[in-house]
Amino acid sequence: MKKKLLSLCLCAVLCNVTPAVSHAASGIVLSDTTASDTVMTGEANPDIATSNALVPTLPLPILQKLHWQPINIHSTQTIILNDSSQQLNDGDIRGAIAAFALPANQGSLEITLNSLIKDKQAYSPNVLVLDEQLRPAAFYPSHYFRYQQPGMMSTDRLEGTLKLTPTLGQQQIYLLIYTTLADLKNATHMVAPAKAYAKGVGNSVPDIPDPIARHTETGTLTLKVKTERDAGNIMVGQIFSTSTATPKPVTVGSTQATSTHSKPVLNDTEQYFNEAIKSAISHGNIDKALKLLNEAEHLGSPTARETFINTIKSGK
Question: Source organism's superkingdom (predicted)?
């Protein structure tokens, strides 16, 4: 299944825009690449955003065989990934993985994932979110997790925040954290301590090279989970029960139907939005396509979502 997301990943913090987009057949949600409240310092390989923005397709039997470690709310877990950790080598996924089960009956979740940089080495994480039935619901590729400089109580790290809202009726949702062949070929550019210190005290910044952390199949993660009430999070799971084999699209943001009771959009207007969505995707502007989709459905378009999904699938 092709989904070339370009510079697309899952984030639910789009200003006044409901990022309601899903893949009806697989339940995969796509979203914007901007990590919440993070600033990227240093440079990364610009190709990684494209080469590693493919949602993995993992057979259900493989997912069912994994050991899903329960995670408590309002706690921080430290996870050491090494040769004795669970391993997954499927497609582009390589090396040690972490698999977590989170409670889905305690409201919206804010999850902060850090991958610590030690000895100029880092585990570059990707996160696949699955609903209670182990259906893919959201995807955060590695370029979502940005380099952060060390602070008083923290070290160099890759960091990203996930905001998820499980729909009613679920007991658990799941996080699969892994790295890929593309990540292993990349590296993280850090900031030299002398530069950081000089900038902090107002001195002239020395002209010295920055260290580079190579990406590895092992590493150290920290995972902090807390409940939160902010709107606009990613909905994980189905809202309405269904008797059909094909799952309903995963809803992102508002749980209210956007077009069921809306006045039908005029044919010319509907055609305009569909063509605009196709054009935006063909030019790699997924954010613009998402906004067009949201606006079209607000006006009552019954075909905008299908146009978005089919265009993403075709890779055009």
Answer: Bacteria
